[in-house]
Amino acid sequence: MKPVKVAVVGIGYFGSRHVATWRSLPEVQVLALCDVKQERAAEAAHRLNALVVTDYRALPAEVEAVSIAVPTRNHFRVARDLLLAGKHVLVEKPITANLNEADELDRIARQQGLILQVGHLERFNPGVMALHDILDRPRFIECRRISPFQDRGTDVNVVLDLMIHDLDLVLSIVRSPLDQIEAIGVPVLSEAEDIANARLRFADGCTVNITASRVSWKKERTMRIFQPDAYIMLDLIEGKLAITRKQLDATAAGLPLLTHEEEKFATGENLKREFESFIDCVRHQRQPLVTAADARRALAAALIITEQLRSWRDRLGIDSAVMHQAQARAV
Q1: Is the pLDDT of residue 320 over 60?
Q2: Fold of 123-267+298-330
Q3: Nearest to 208 by CA among 179, 229, 249
Q4: Distance in Å from the first CA to the final CA of the chain
Q5: CA distances (Å), 219 to each of 159, 235, 312, in order?
Q6: CATH architecture for segment(s) 4-120+270-289
Q7: Counting beta carbons within 10 angstroms of the beta carbon of residue 239, is it exposed (0 to 12), middle (13 to 18) or buried (19 or more)?
Q8: What's this model's pTM, rounded to 2 decimal places?
Q9: Structural domain spans, the chain
Q10: Residue 277 near residue 21 (C-beta atoms within 8 A)
Q11: Does the structure show a pLDDT above 60 at 324?
Q12: Which pLDDT score, from 0 to 100, does residue 259 have?
């Protein structure tokens, strides 16, 4: 089978990971790399014998699929033009800066008969994928995604930077309309919010509490799910899935009889699994695991939370003009 010819647009921190991942897959050929900084693309292309361009519109016609890792504000323009040029597209999260742009990309991809996949790579975590076999009407979910501060990613708030991963996971788990969102957050080390908490309520009664921070001493990626007769704890860093279940029998004292089991899973290759899935969709015209519609739902929730954070800043008396400028740069 001939390798799929791919290109990468945007060779920054995450784009460099794209290049390394594509290079590890035997079923693809990296044909071209694109970045506005030619020397950055040239350095990444050193061992690939790939064409280096500074304008994505100059990618070779032979390129079949493109992964996009440019700033969020450029997602729509780059993805739109590449879809119209007949290329399958994998674009990093969030899909676009606003919902109208997300809808337009979805429309174009459908019209062109092309794959449009969005980079919510936590969906490809083996622990997350194992959840779907044990979930039974979740009643309460708690997510924590915290990290030490880094300079990259601060052009957007922590919701669009980190929390959006958990928003996507929750919306894929809870199969019920989202009824209400309440959120608070504050900037600490950057101009946009660095820590935020959101509470989501769904029509079926499920409640979700999500905390995201990029100003913590440690790194944590956990999800706790409470459902009838079971408690599930998923640790995405440790690679552990633990399930405590209530049995029908009771102890001699009349207390619930509990069983506990733990499962370990591999970590660290979510991006590789995501890219392999994308190539499989390209080859066989299959629907991606993370569609444009999925990504739009996560973006819609993230934008509602972002708007609530603006109101929260106003209540706290923090200069909203600074935040608005930061958000304008992000989109």
Answers
A1: no
A2: Dihydrodipicolinate Reductase; domain 2 (3.30.360)
A3: 179
A4: 40
A5: 16, 11, 26
A6: 3-Layer(aba) Sandwich (3.40)
A7: middle
A8: 0.90
A9: 4-120+270-289, 123-267+298-330
A10: no
A11: no
A12: 87
